[in-house]
Each structure stands twice: as structure tokens, then as C-alpha cells.
Design brief:
Elements (H helix, E strand, L loop, with lengths): L5 E6 L2 E10 L4 E3 L1
Antiparallel strand pairs: 1-2, 2-3
């Protein structure tokens, strides 16, 4: 996973898509 990747995830029971903004060791920031 790297900056700029599009990922899909479940949030509050809904499917969302986000773009990876920053990646630290175990934390991924979405925008």
C-alpha cells in the first residue's frame, strides 16, 4: 500500500472508497 492508492473499506456498515494520503508504519491516513 502506498500513497495515492485507492482502497475500499467498510465504514459504519457502508462501503467507502478512499485515497491513501499518508502511510506510517501501521497507520494509514485516508483523504
Amino acid at each position: 500500500m502506498k500513497v495515492g492508492d485507492k482502497i475500499k473499506f467498510d465504514f459504519a456498515g457502508k462501503k467507502k472508497e478512499g485515497t491513501v494520503h499518508k502511510v506510517f508504519s501501521k497507520t494509514v491516513y485516508l483523504k
